Structure formats: structure tokens, C-alpha cells
Amino acid sequence: MACVRLALVGLLLAFSCATARPAPSAGGAAACDDRPPPTYTCAQQKGWGKCGEAFMAPFCARTCGRCGDSAGNGTSAIALPALAATIASSNASATAPPPAPTATATASASTTQLGGLSGNVAEYGKVLGMSWQFMYAQRSGRLSEAPSNPIPWRSDDHLDDPVVGGFFDAGDHLKLNFPLATSLTFLAWGALEFPAAYATTGQTQAALENLRWGADYLMACHPSDNTYIAQIGEPGADHAYWGRPEEQRGPRPAYTWDASKPASDAAGAAASALASASLLFKSGDPAFAADCLDHARRLFTFASTHEGKYSASQPGPTYVYPSTQFEDDLAFAAAWLYRATGEEPYLAAARKYLQRAQYQRNYFVSWDSVFVPADILLSSLGVGPSPGVDHAWQIATFLETWQQGHNGIKFSPQGLALAPLGGWGNLRHSANAAFMMVLHAKSTNASEAAACLAWARRQVDYMLGLAGSDRSFVVGYGSNPPTHAHHRAASCPPTPAPCTYETAFNSPAPNPRVLTGALVGGPPGPSDSYQDVRSNYQTNEVAVDYNAGFTGALAGLVQLLAPSSSSGAALA
User: Fold this and answer.
1) Choice among 172, 209, 328, 545 that is catalytic
2) Could you tell me the end-to-end alpha-carbon distance of the chain, in angstroms, rounded to an integer?
3) pLDDT tens per residue across span 197-238
4) Global pTM?
5) Catalytic (active site) residue 541
6) Quick check: is 209 catalytic?
């Protein structure tokens, strides 16, 4: 379920959101029994989209994690400080990270061996492979024609879609290209930068198969120069269905953007994904790589010629992933095209968009914010400062933000870095920051690299339950992993047993299918409290974008921390 992501990064970019979603006063009714006390009223949540969908009326209070009646009324128990005030005081009262935990890997982890790896590094390698299993589980289309399908409970689905293929976004069956494209870029980036990790862990083929699957789909969604299909599926209708993707019926509209309906962010993100894919496949399949690059060029031309946010052009169907700005996506796309082609106009374009947005940017990384990735990519290519653009300064501020607790970053008692983005999918934000840290560690000085790797290790160890936290947040891995992830297909028993809201969503039993490798949203903060509840999609849903940066961080840690670490050869 895409579940009203509501531009989490946009919460920070637009301080007006603090006014649009005022924090309730302290006090009021007790919290719902399926999660820690909420920070917004049911009435507020109902207006956010998800709880506003008619079919959710019986589930709103519980699924939105709010107290009140089934219509979504009631008040919350705890107030959330005004976001603008939090940011204004963040540097003055930054929360320092708690002392490093003394806990080490479990006994089983300390004896694990994988491709010559040992200890926690071997665990990173193991979970790297599991994370790609999650990507296989998210694929849509003609799985019977795929080179491999290692998920036995998944088969052909949605063969009547306007564009067949691609990936489901999260626990639902929507195909949403804006977050997908950024996720594919991160996945390809990790494979490009850390090929030795993939060779050591035997995951090269999994990476290539899934990234080709995604690139094929994005190209199919670009039938002509100024036409781009960025979404398939209407959120309300899709969310009204709980069951197997293979059995879903009904209309699946394709939403198209063109010169009259600009989509600089979504089309720019697709250009990034295809430009990075062209580099990944350049040596092994030059013809496919050339196709990717051709589409990337034309998508960037479309995105940069007809400027505008895709969610502003078509706000109706895009409420689950509304965009905050598009300049970051165009800068990131231009940077990837510069890397892929070496052509100076693309570098000039990247600088132009970064300069234009110099007062709009933030230091968080997600599908809605790729300013930091653009800086790190350009810096890794040896690009120096230009008017209004200083990559080194921006990267240094990013490191301070996450390592020292500036710009609203706080740390849970057990060490999880928490972004001030509403508590939604917190592990995803920390994993994305960890990915940026390992990327930067490749090209910076030894002291800064060590600090980046130590911070990334700490966050990943928390997610895996190896240190800091006392449990795993990755399905199918480690100690006490999640068993009730908010995911339709995984919640369904084997056929012919029915799978519905009543029989599966409401079932107290663990998911019958193990969604191996999926990273859940995790603790909402500020504590480390977490409940493994299927109905709570804020903390227990899974998504392609949750795993994308996480996968890159794992690969980076494997390659950079392994004995005799080297850059490795490119994937073939």
C-alpha cells in the first residue's frame, strides 16, 4: 500500500506544512492499543488521503494507528512540536548520538562465512542477497518469461495493464514510476560502485536481472519523446483490494504526462535510472545500454524543456507520492548523463539546477529529495564548485547533519538516526543516509571515510539486530524478525484458500509467505518501540524505495570492510 507517503521530505522543505497539519495540544484520549501514542489526530489523518478512502472507514482508527471511532474521529495523546521550531533550534540543541553500544554480533553471526567474509561483514553479504529476493517478489508482469523467478508463490499478474511489467511499489499493486525510478538509480549506483561486493556474495546476476526488468519497463513507459506514463493504477481502487496480485481484476488506468502536463521530476528520475543502467550494461550488452541511454537523453530533454511537477500536473492520482520540487531530479539526471556521456552541456545543466535550488534544498535522501546524491555523484567525478554550487560544503553539511544530529536529526536511545519527517519509514531514511556515507567513503580522505563507514555500520547493525537494537527489522533474517509485514501477497495463504481483508489483513497469524529481505518501516521514534502489526503501514509496510538505499549500503560495507578491499571490476 503506497499509503499516503505525503511527501515526507516535503514536510521539511515546506515549513507551511507545519501550519497545514497543526500539532494537536497535549492531552486527550488514550492512544490506540496497536502502537505507541500518536502525534496527530484521527481527523487530521483522515484528511491525508489514505484514511479518506471510503473503504477504509472500518479500519481507519487502527490502520492509521490513531485513537477514536471507526470514522476516524478523536484526539491524539501527544503533541508534535512545530516543525519550523524544531529546525530553527536543531543546531543549537542538537541531540548527540548515544554512546556506541557494546553489543557485538550474535554468536551465529560471528561464525558466519560467506565468500571469504566473516563476522558482521558476512552478515551484510547475506542480507544483500536477501534484499534482492525482495526485489524479485515485487516484480509484476510475465514472470513466467523472466530468466528466473526464485519466488515460488509469485507468478504472472496484470497482463492486461497498459504497460506490462515493472515493480509493485510497496504492499499494494500500484506501479509508481517516480519512487521506482529513484530506487532503480540507487540500486544501479550501488552495483556500479561496489562490484566486488556483488562478485563476492554471488549477487551479480540478481542485480542485473532486476535492473534490466526495471529499465525495460521504464523504456516501455516512454513511447514517444514527450509522452511518459508515470503511474499505473488508481490508489483508492487498488487499496480497496486485499488479495493476491495474480487474482486482481478491474480497470488499471495508465496516467500519462506530456508537454501539456509536465513531469520534470518523474521523467527526470527515469532519465537518471536509465542513464545509470546504460553504464551498468555497457560492457555486457552494448545494444541494450545504448537503448537505455537514448531514452535517458530524450526523457531529460522532455523533463527540462517542459518544467513542472508531475503531482501538480495531475494531483488526483498522485497523492500517494506528491513531489516537493523538480530541480533536484533534473540536476541528478543531468549528473548521470554527464557521467554516462562526458558531455559538458549535461554538467552545465546539473550546475544550473543546483544553483537555482540552492535555497530550497535539504540534507535528507529519498525519492523526493536527491540533492545530496547529485552532490556526491558530481564530487566523485571530480567536479569542483561553480557559482551557487559547492559540493564539498554541501556534503560536509550532510555529514554533520546525520553524524552529529543537526537540522532536526535526533537519535533514539539505542542509536537509530531519526529524520524529522513524520516518523514514516524511519529505517528507510537512515539506510539512504548510510548509502550516501559509503559512497562518499570511496572518494574522501581516510579519516572522513572511517567516520562514514562507522556511522553506516552502526545504522545497518541496528536494522539487522546485530548491535544497538535487540531485533531484526528485515523479514526472514536474524533475531525476532518481522512476521506481519503490511504486504498483500505475503499475507495470502496458498491457493485455493481465500485472501481478503477479512481473512488475511485482519488475521492475527504471521504472514504465510516469508517476504525475504524486505526492510520494514521501523520504529516511529523518538523511542525504539516497535510493534509488528500488519495494520500499521506507517511502521510495518515495506517498499521498493525502503530497500534501495539499504541494498547499496550493504554492498558498500561488504566491499569497503572486507579484507583486502579493492574497487573491484565492473559488473559484466
Assistant:
1) 172
2) 35
3) 999 999 999 999 999 999 999 999 999 999 999 999 999 999
4) 0.84
5) yes
6) no
